[in-house]
Amino acid sequence: MEESFYKESIVLIEGAITEMLAKLDIIKKYKLARNERVPIEYITTRVKTEESMKEKLKRKGLEVNLENALTKIYDAAGVRIVCSYIDDVYQIAEMLKSYKDLKLIKEKDYIKNPKPNGYRSYHMVFEMSLDLAGEIIPVFVEIQIRTIAMDFWSSLEHQMKYKKDIQNQELIAEELKRCADQIATTDLNMQTIRKMINNEE
Fold first, then answer.
1. Is the Cα torsion angle 108, 110, 114, 115 positive or negative in sign?
2. Euclidean distance between CA atoms 93 and 145, whole angstroms
3. CB 146 within 8 Å of CB 155
4. Range(s) of the domain holding residue 116
5. Would you say 124 and 104 are in contact if contact means Cβ atoms under 8 Å apart?
6. Which of 34, 72, 98, 149 is most buried by its number of CB atoms within 10 A?
7. Cα separation, 34 vs 32, whole angstroms
8. Could you give the CA distance from residue 126 to residue 140 in angstroms, rounded to a whole number?
9. Would you say 95 and 27 are in contact if contact means Cβ atoms under 8 Å apart?
10. What is the tens place of the pLDDT at every residue in 30-41?
11. Is the CB of residue 124 less than 8 Å from the CB of residue 20?
């Protein structure tokens, strides 16, 4: 079963990502058709590797099989949506929640409630139903929505976190937290400037 489960699950996981991207594309086209600003700057996706999926299933004490991969692992399929402004993040989140064929499973607002290290982002897990020749199969998709500034900090913090033999780890953690707070302030300032400009138009 360990030999084949990933090949089967990857087809469904990639299918779920494709459907989610189609929904986001509709949002972009809808905004353009209404001559409104598109709140999405760019989108990235990722699929959990076979090794990572097996490791997570085993860590949870679960048998490595297709059913568990699809029903017990929430982050096998990942979509990251990067926006210009903080209010864009919440706008996209509300639009996704309005889709009747998406079932919201989990939701965490790390923008209003940042992690201790300074990490900020808006996380959601949706259950999607894929129709395969009449067989309905539920698949989970993890969504992360953040601003360009949040994504910049997170990407660099992620790279640094995996460096080995780091000296002064506590000091570095403090500096990263300070940078995260400064970036959050800049995000708010940029949003305020945009609103000032829009009011003048």
1. positive
2. 8
3. no
4. 5-152
5. yes
6. 149
7. 5
8. 6
9. yes
10. 999 999 999 999
11. no
